[in-house]
Design a protein that fits this description.
By secondary structure, the protein is mainly alpha-helical. The protein has one domain. The chain contains five helices and two strands; from the N terminus they run ββααααα. This is DUF4231 domain-containing protein.
Length: about 180
């Protein structure tokens, strides 16, 4: 692949922008010595998880603000409409339907739970990075690099397992879309 960049090139997509990363040059956030590699990995994973927590915090707050504002606006439109059909009936009906949709979306997506889940694992990784930096237990031995790597890997697996528990199952989706009383 010839793209004008000397050496090997890997493509990385970040926030919608595709860039070439030349792995033969030093990057600002790349580890500067082999001893910093486990710490850099831990920090990078914590940063990634923190970004996911921030995204879910925004979603949770946006869902809450929209639901509250739209629900509060319904009686205002009805009260101020007088005999106007559009502001007295159509607008409140549309707002009520949007609120129901947003609340259902929030129950399936569970942004509040995801926010707290991601933030908890971010804090666990940050705490391990501090323990590693200062040589505190369990990183107070010669095998500290392997210990940190193993802990980061285990945190990622645990996070994935807990995250999968937040995804609605096919049965839950089928039950939510079923019309009529459930048996």
């Amino acid at each position: 692949m010839s793209n004008g960049v000397a050496g090997s090139c890997r493509w990385r997509c970040t926030r919608g922008q595709t860039t070439c990363v030349n792995w033969n040059t030093r990057h600002q956030d790349a580890p500067q010595s082999p001893a910093q590699e486990p710490l850099a990995m831990c920090t990078a994973v914590a940063r990634s998880i923190g970004a996911k927590a921030d995204k879910n915090r925004f979603r949770a707050r946006a869902l809450t603000v929209f639901t509250t504002a739209a629900t509060a606006a319904i009686p205002v439109f009805i009260g101020l409409s007088g005999d106007d059909f559009v502001t007295g009936k159509v607008v409140p009906s549309v707002l009520a339907a949007l609120c129901a949709t947003v609340v259902a979306l929030g129950q399936f997506e569970r942004p509040h739970e995801r926010w707290t889940l991601y933030r908890r694992y971010q804090r666990l990784l940050e705490a391990d990075a501090k323990r590693y930096t200062f040589g505190l237990e369990p990183f107070d031995n010669d095998d500290r690099d392997r210990t940190l790597g193993a802990r980061v890997a285990q945190y990622e697996l645990d996070l994935q397992a807990e995250w999968e528990g937040l995804i609605p199952s096919s049965a839950e989706l089928a039950t939510a879309t079923k019309v009529g009383p459930t048996p």
